[in-house]
Structures are given as C-alpha cells and as structure tokens.
Design goal:
The N and C termini lie close together (9 Å). The relative contact order is 0.15. This protein is globular. With 271 residues, it is α+β, with helices and mostly antiparallel strands. A 5-stranded antiparallel beta sheet has the order 11-10-9-12-13, with helices on both faces. Strands 2-1-3-4 form a 4-stranded parallel beta sheet.
C-alpha cells in the first residue's frame, strides 16, 4: 500500500515527532510505503495515494482529499463530530450515558450570557465544568465553583457547561477502540487536578475495562463513524470525551500494547 500520514504543520514538539516516527516505522515494518505530509504541504498540492492516515483536525483538508476519492482514516465527518465537544455530546445523546450538559446559545458578538449561566447553575449545580467546544489535551476546560468563575471564562468562543462528576474527579479510563474492538485500556489518575489528562501530569496504569465500558466505547465510536479512537469514560459509566486521533504512545508505554499495527490492519481491511 502507498499511503500518506497527514499531520499538522504548526504542532511541533518531541511528543508529536515520537508519534509520527513510530507510525512511519511501523508502516515500513508492515510493508506499507507511508510518507509524512503536513497540512501546509497538502493545502497546495494534488495527492495520489491508496489512503491517508489523517492525524490532524484540519477538517476541510480531509474533506478535500475525500473529494479526490482518496480513502481518509478517520474520515472528515468523524473528525468533525469529535473535534466539536457540543457536536459530540449531541451525536451521542441517544446512545451512551453522559454528564448533564448544556450548550451555550450561539452569539454573533459579545453578549450577556448571565441568564444562561444562572439557569445552568440551577439545573447542573455547582461546581460545574466549563468547556470550550474546541480544544485538546484538557486545555480550555475549567472546574468552576461560582457564577463569577464561569463568567470569567466566557469569550466569543463556543462553549458548554457540564455536570461535575465528583466521584470521578481526577480519574477516568481511556479505552483505545480499533475496528470495533477494545485494543487497550488505561486508568488515568491525577491527584492535583480534576482533569485526568497525562498532559496535566496525570498518570496512566494498565487496567481491564468492564464489559459495560467496552460496549459504551465501541458504541460511541460506531455512532461517530470512527475506525479508531480513544474514549474517555468517567467513574459511573459516563462517556466524557471521544478522540479521533488519541495519542497512542502514552497508552503503549503504560500497557505494552502497540495500537499502530492494529490501525494499519484496520485500514487495509477497508481498502
């Protein structure tokens, strides 16, 4: 197979290089001719390939590649559904249990959101979780203990307010789902932050998910159209977030399970 690994030109750093090099090395071992291209390069070039492994969130680029009849994994629609936390919540609403969530009304300019915030506090209680709709690695996610705290985080960016699952503060499980199966699972814990993300100094340890958690994660990926993805589940069986291109290196270090060859096998089955 002849493929392209599409990554973001503007995200640099050791952890990204390590991931990209691991995917390229795994592809070579499996006899796959995989070439790394950034979204800056691909924005102005025509592409010929058997597939694109799209490790980015540049949805318009992914869609353009699909218009050229190149199979893209994950597909543009799936990435789009995962990239927007409000869209993810709505897509999964009839499928899995999620924390109570209220999506802020759309505003075209600086607006008074106090009536929405006041009503959200009545419904969800305090503290609650403030999330900008677009963000990664636990960024733009805040635990708010007061009305003023919530208001201080509001900008022109879309956001939602979510029930705080106190019993899962600083703890969750990340399930790596590939082609409808759970490939690996880790327990993430952070004693100093309500967010369990490793980027925020959380720690990962191998764990075995329950059959219920596996069903939740598989159903979420299926509903969102993901061939592979990372599903975060809070204690109590709440699906918190779904990632279209979860960082598989951290899971590999914690579990010894390498998701990369499993992803390439899944891609090959679709071609």
């Amino acid at each position: 197979m002849n493929g392209i690994l599409a990554v973001n030109h503007f995200l640099r750093g050791e952890k990204f290089d390590t991931l990209h090099n691991h995917l390229l090395k795994t592809a070579r071992k499996m006899g796959i001719d995989l070439t790394l291209k950034t979204n800056l390069e691909l924005a102005t070039r025509s592409v010929q390939a058997d597939f694109v492994l799209f490790w980015d969130k540049d949805i318009n680029l992914a869609r353009r590649l699909e218009f050229c009849r190149i199979p893209v994994f994950n597909c543009a629609n799936a990435i789009e559904k995962c990239d927007d936390k409000a869209r993810t919540y709505l897509e999964l609403l009839p499928v899995v249990k999620q924390p109570g969530t209220l999506i802020a009304p759309k505003s075209y300019f600086e607006s008074d959101m106090r009536p929405f915030v006041d009503r959200a506090i009545e419904i969800l209680g305090l503290p609650l979780v403030f999330k900008e709709c677009f963000g990664s690695f636990g960024m733009q996610v805040y635990l708010c203990k007061s009305r003023e705290d919530i208001l201080s985080h509001i900008t022109q960016k879309p956001f939602l307010l979510q029930e705080f699952i106190e019993k899962s503060a600083g703890r969750d499980k990340r399930l790596e789902i590939i082609d409808g199966r759970c490939a690996a699972c880790v327990r993430r814990e952070n004693n100093n932050d309500f967010r369990a993300n490793v980027t925020n100094a959380g720690k990962m340890t191998f764990c075995t998910p329950s059959s219920e958690e596996i069903h939740l994660a598989v159903d979420a990926c299926k509903k969102l159209g993901l061939l592979f993805g990372g599903v975060d589940i809070l204690d109590g069986g709440y699906v918190c977030e779904v990632n279209s291109n979860a960082h598989i290196i951290n899971i590999m270090k914690a579990t010894g399970i390498d998701a990369a060859p499993l992803i390439f096998d899944a891609v090959a089955k679709r071609l």
